[in-house]
Every structure is written in C-alpha cells, then in structure tokens.
Amino acid sequence: GFAQAIFEDAERLGLPVPKDVVPITTKDYPTPARRPANSVLDCRRIAETYGITQPDWRIGVRHALATLTKEK
Predict the structure, then answer these.
(1) In whole angstroms, what is the distance from residue 43 CA to residue 55 CA?
(2) In the 8-state DSSP scheme, what is residue 43?
(3) pTM, whole model, 2 decimals?
C-alpha cells in the first residue's frame, strides 16, 4: 500500500512511474534484518502528554514528492 500511494501521487505530479506495482507482504521481502509483523508507531502518549499529533503519512509522501519535483 505504501509503494502504491507513492506511485499514485508521483503519477499525479507527472513523474515517470512503473505501470504495475505488485503488493507483497513484509515476510515476502528478502532482507538480512528481521522485520516485525506490525511496526506501527504508537503516538498516543506524546499526544496525551504534550498535545502533539502526527499527520497522516500520506501528507508526508505528498510533501516529499513535491520537494523532489522542485529539485529537478
């Protein structure tokens, strides 16, 4: 889903993207490091203590792609 979101946003910005993205699970991605099945960061405590909330990750993807397109 993460890669698909990146490619969809990149395509909207007119960047070249692969035609097909085939989703795979973390388990199916070969890497020397063992990866947790679920590595979602729990930010409840910082939100409760300091009122800091994290934006949706898609906003970060859009910001990063916009920054990359400005650098061209």
Answers:
(1) 11
(2) -
(3) 0.63
